[in-house]
Amino acid sequence: MAVDLDETGVSHPLDPLTTEEIAAATDVLEAEWDVADDAVYHNVVLDEPAKEFVRAYEDGDHFDREAFVVIRQGGETYEARVSITGKELLGVEHIEDVQPAITPPEVDQAEQAVINDPEWQEAAAKRGVENFDLAIVDPWPASGFEPDSHADRRLVRGLSWIRTEEEDNGYARPIEGLFAFVDLDEMEVVKIEDNGVVDEENPLPPEDADFRADRVATRDDFKHLDVVQPEGPSFEVEGQTVEWLDWEFQVGWTPREGLVFHDVTFEDEGEKRKVLHRASASEMAVPYGDSDPNHSWKEAFDIGEFHVGRMANVLTEGCDCLGEMHYFDVAMNDTNGDPKTLPNAICMHEEDDGVLWKHTEWRKEHTEVRRRRRLVISFIATVYNYDYGFYWYFYPDGSIEGEVRLTGIDSNGMVPAEEDATDTNGEYELVAPQVKTSIHQHHFNFRLDFDIDDTPNRVKEVHNEPVGSERKKGFKAKETVLETETEARDDIDPLNGKYWRVESTETTNSYGRPCGYKLEPHTNVNSPARPTSSTTKRAGFIQNNFWTTQYDPDEQFAAGDYPNQNDETTGLSEWAEQDRDLDGEDVVCWYTLGVNHVTRAEDWPVLPVEIASFHLKPEGFLDSNPAISLPPEPCHTEHDLTSVGDD
Q: Do the beta carbons of residue 208 and residue 173 sit within 8 Å?
């Protein structure tokens, strides 16, 4: 692995900004522009270089570094671009009528503003709350539901719960029907919404919901499992560059998306062949279906409105990952513009995943098996009650799997003590006395910037179709080129085996097949939201499972750059209306992965992981199975098959 450090201290033009670079960028901005004392820095991130530059880049080449900065001051939002290499401000633009994402310090300050508010305290006291210091408040986005009198403010809508003591699970006792709107610019409560006490005699749920190991009885028949690699892992790491078997890629990070992959290549007979220029989770919409006015408004964009990278966990060895691990620290700015390091934000390790390929030669009494080991790169973010694990798996056969694991505590509400568990109308489930959890969905959009063989690409829809035959059972995989962006809006069809193929228009394998990769969907779900709903308007990307657009470096996020308090349709569905040509172009595929969460009692007090994923597989990209060259595991070569066929 040939890696040279540029004079900036980074090894690749797509490496995330270092702490030194973040500090340098803010220093330049503050020296050349009038940054207010109370300005809030939202993002100081790498302004990624043009794709043409990255294509031409070779180890050791000089490259400049630039930063993209989002800053809010005086109730207005500004974008700045700074040359770190040249130590100069390249420009500042006022972006009108937008709200940047909600930052962690704003969450903490808004919570305290609510707890200290006299009107909120009076309403909470009516519900049996005595010690306000034990309250917790989650400031949700107010998007689409801003009070008319305050619609022009930067708002959040606070939901409240109450603990019985400091170490209690506060989500066990919702303070139902009480909401507080907080202006984040002024950090003051501007409106209290009190929809009434649900149960005067039993104003709070009665039970704890403990789950911590020091507060529950743990079993003693669950023996410790260890993963040992005495020879060490098979991957190599230099800076942000990872090599594993035939794979090579850059591990990137942004506060908004979290984990990002750049410049993904697969080595084929000594040649590093490009698969993806960039891949990440670009947006996530979480609409709730409960028609109860206290819950029907719930709708969060956890990537665009909160920035999951800022909510990433510090991963701990032996818990979040097992085996021989490599951790990546990440650098991010705080709201003052100062650099901070989040240690162990990304975990990388190998894990066994069953059989990759196998064949038994029963005539020769010989078996060959190769294990399906995979390289796992992951991070986990906690957004209030929910915990999201983003996992990317790289396999020896040239395939990649993107996966999301959802766990944590369901957002909940309270019902009267006499509530009948059979009278929920399918909109919610009783999970504890007087505690309900509502039906909801999670829609994750993944932006996949394919560059198969660094050539122009095209996209095809593929599905099974019958063909005429004497026995009337023939069928084929019918391929249809998606010529334009409008044609490339599509949905899964598992019963007909539908998938989408991205292929080069210039390279073929040895058999004349265009070199390509297919996007193979796994489980998914469509949104039942009506076309005029706030969900459909704001999260236009959920209207279809699959989209393709012509590459535009300014089109990065499926719900647009600023979804917070944006009630209009922006982003992917707007861009696709341009109906640009796709055949023989630089294309970007967007896959919306939906999870339907009909809640259940077994999800309480902490949800066992829900798993959703999709797969990218080489299809004609190679001439044969690249995993044939894997060595067998030491413990097996041949097996005794004398019993085969014996009666």
A: no
Q: How many CA atoms lie within 13 A of 162 on its CB side?
A: 22
Catalytic residue among 168, 290, 292, 302: 302
CA distance 192 to 180: 5
Q: How far apart are CA 150 and CA 155, in angstroms?
A: 8
Element (H, E) at 537: helix 534-538
Q: How many residues in the chain?
A: 647
For strands 475-481 and 499-508, give the pairing: unpaired
CA distance from start to end of the chain: 56
Report the pLDDT value the prediction gives residue 468, as an integer from 0 to 100. 83
Sheet containing strand 428-432, edge to edge, reads: 412-414, 435-438, 428-432
Task: Count CA atoms closer than 13 A to 591's CA, side-chain side.
Answer: 27
150: its two tokens: 């305050």
Its sign, for the CA torsion 539, 276, 328, 59, is negative
Q: Is 561 a catalytic residue?
A: no
623, 511 contact by CB (below 8 A) = yes
Query: Do 275 and 450 contact (CB within 8 A), yes or no?
Result: yes
The reported pLDDT for the residue numbered 318 is 62
**Contact between 100 and 39 (Cβ < 8 Å):** no
Buried b (16+ CB within 10 A) or exposed e, 519-547: bbbeebbbbebeeeeebbbbbbbbbbbbb
Residues of the chain with pLDDT under 50: 2-6, 636-647
Strands of 415-468, DSSP E: 428-432, 435-438, 440-450, 457-466
pLDDT given for residue 647 in this prediction: 45
Residue 88 burial by Cβ neighbours in a 10 Å radius (0-12, 13-18, 19+): exposed
Chain centroid to CA 379: 9
Structure confidence by residue, pLDDT tens digits, 214-244: 999 999 999 988 889 999 999 999 999 999 9
Tell me the CA distances in angstroms from 484 to 205, 540, 577, 581, 587, one per residue in order. 55, 18, 10, 5, 11
Single-letter amino acid, residue 646: D
- CA-to-CA distance for 151 and 167, rounded, in angstroms? 37
Q: Give the position of tokens 């999970």.
A: 431
Whole-prediction pTM value?
Answer: 0.95
Digit-coded pLDDT (tens) for 238-252: 999 999 999 999 999
- Of the candidates 330, 218, 282, 233, the one whose C-alpha atom is nearest the C-alpha of residue 539 is 282
| Rounded Cα–Cα distance for residues 586 and 584 (Å) | 7
Q: Where are the alpha helices (DSSP H) in 163-288?
A: none
Phi-psi region of 240 (alpha: psi -120 to 50; beta: other; left: phi over 0): alpha
Q: What is the pLDDT of residue 418?
A: 92
Identify the active-site residue in 78, 171, 288, 386.
Answer: 386
**C-alpha distance from residue 328 to each of 189, 231, 393 (Å):** 39, 21, 16
- CB proximity list for 540: less than 8 A, separation 6 or greater: 559, 569, 570, 571, 572, 573, 574
Are the CB atoms for 620 and 509 separated by under 8 Å? yes
* HSE-up (13 A, CA, CB side) for residue 571: 30
302 carries an active-site annotation: yes
Q: Which two tokens stand for residue 621?
A: 């990209």
Provide the 10 A C-beta neighbour count for residue 302.
23
Are 481 and 458 in contact by the 8 Å Cβ rule? The answer is yes
